[in-house]
Design a protein that fits this description.
With 335 residues, this protein is α+β, with helices and mostly antiparallel strands. Helices cover 17% and strands 14% of the residues. The protein is globular.
C-alpha cells in the first residue's frame, strides 16, 4: 500500500506506507489555507440533467454530469496530485458506500451461481459500509450483482470479453472491461474525483476548504490548518472502543451531486492501477494496463484531513483487505 502524508511530528498513525513520503511544509499549508478560506466557493458549471436522464437514474444512484474538470489540487503542494484537465463522460454513481447487508445479499446469490470465492468480509453492522474487501473481491461482486439483476457484466477474463470474471485473483487490464455495458463496476480514479467534488471547483473537500467532524467521519488533528474540528482524534460519535469506527452510510450531509461519505468512513477502491499523473489533458482516462497497486480514494475513519481531500491519492495491493477498505459502484450512462 502507498499512502502520501505530510510530516506530522509526534503523531502516531495507522498508516502502512510502502512508498515515498511527501514532505510538505507547515508554513505552506497555513498560507494556502488562509488564502483559500478568504475566497468564496467557485461553483463549476454543471451539465443540465434532462427529464429522460432523470428517469434513467437507477434507484440509489446519482447522475454525475459529463464535462471537463481539474483533477488534482495545487492548494497544498501535493506533488502526487498535480492539477491537469480531464474530461469525463456522464455516469451514474452509487450514492452510498456498499453496505455489509448489500454485500451479503449479492454474495449469497453469487455463491450459488459460479462466484464460489466471494469472501464474507467485514462490516460493523448491516447499515455500515462493508470493509476488509480486496480489489479482486469488489470487482467480482460487481459482476455478481450485474448478473443477479440481469445486467451485462463489465469484467471479463479475456480481451475478447467472452468469459465473465467470476473466480480467482486476476489482474484485469483495460481491454478486459466492457465499458459501455449497463452492469456495475468500480469508478475510474477520474470519475471518482469528478463525483467527489460535487460540482465545486478548486476546493479541498466536496463542500469547501475546511473540514470538521460535523461533515465527515475521519481522524481529526490540529496539525492541519484546514482541520477546524473542535473534537480531535477519531470521531467521538463512532469511537466506541471496538474498531472499526465506521458510521452508518449516509450519516452526513450529501454533496452537490447527492453523494454521501465521499470523505472518510472507508477508503474506496477505484479501477485504476496507480501511476504518476500525466501532464497533458485527458479524456476518460483509465490508467495503465498493468501495475503493482490499485488506487483508493476518499480515505477513512482512521486517517487525517490531509488524506480526506478530494485530490488525495492512496493505493494498495489489489489483494489487501484492511479494516478500512470498502467501495461503491458506478454504472456507465448507456444511451
Amino acid at each position: 500500500m502507498i499512502r502520501i502524508n505530510p510530516p506530522n511530528p509526534g503523531i502516531s498513525t495507522t498508516a502502512r506506507p510502502r512508498g515515498l513520503i511527501l514532505l510538505v511544509g507547515l508554513a505552506l499549508l497555513a498560507a494556502s489555507a488562509a488564502s483559500s478560506q478568504s475566497s468564496g466557493d467557485k461553483v463549476a458549471e454543471q451539465s443540465p440533467v434532462s427529464r429522460d436522464q432523470q428517469q434513467a437514474v437507477p434507484a440509489g444512484f446519482a447522475w454525475i454530469p459529463g464535462g471537463e474538470f481539474t483533477q488534482g489540487d495545487p492548494l497544498d503542494g501535493d506533488m502526487e496530485a498535480a492539477p491537469h484537465a480531464v474530461r469525463v463522460s456522464a455516469f451514474h454513481m452509487q450514492q452510498k458506500e456498499v453496505t455489509k447487508a448489500e454485500w451479503d445479499a449479492v454474495r449469497d446469490w453469487g455463491l450459488k451461481h459460479g462466484f464460489t470465492d466471494l469472501n464474507r468480509c467485514g462490516g460493523k453492522a448491516a447499515d455500515h459500509p462493508l470493509q476488509r474487501v480486496t480489489w479482486y473481491g469488489a470487482v467480482k461482486w460487481c459482476n455478481a450483482r450485474s448478473e443477479m439483476e440481469g445486467r451485462t457484466p463489465c469484467y471479463y477474463m479475456d480481451a475478447a470479453q467472452t468469459l465473465p470474471y467470476r473466480i480467482g485473483d486476476v489482474d484485469l487490464a483495460n481491454p478486459m472491461v466492457k465499458w459501455d455495458a449497463n452492469g456495475y463496476r468500480l469508478p475510474t480514479e477520474a470519475e471518482w474525483e469528478k463525483a467527489a467534488r460535487g460540482g465545486l471547483s478548486g476546493k479541498r473537500f466536496p463542500w469547501g476548504d475546511s473540514i470538521s467532524h460535523a461533515q465527515a467521519n475521519y481522524k481529526s488533528n490540529a496539525f492541519y490548518p484546514f482541520d477546524v474540528s473542535p473534537t480531535r482524534g477519531e470521531h467521538p460519535a463512532y469511537d466506541d472502543g471496538d474498531k472499526p469506527y465506521t458510521s452508518p452510510v449516509g450519516s452526513f450531509a450529501a454533496s452537490g451531486y447527492g453523494l454521501y461519505d465521499m470523505v472518510g468512513n472507508v477508503c474506496e477502491w477505484c479501477w485504476d492501477w496507480s501511476r504518476t499523473y500525466p501532464v497533458t489533458a485527458q479524456t476518460d482516462p483509465r490508467g495503465p494496463d498493468k501495475g503493482t497497486d490499485r488506487v483508493t480514494r476518499g480515505d477513512s475513519w482512521s486517517y487525517h484531513a490531509w488524506n480526506a481531500r478530494c485530490a488525495a491519492r492512496s493505493s494498495y495491493s489489489p489483494g489487501d483487505s484492511y479494516f478500512d477498505l470498502g467501495f461503491r459502484t458506478v454504472i456507465s450512462a448507456v444511451p
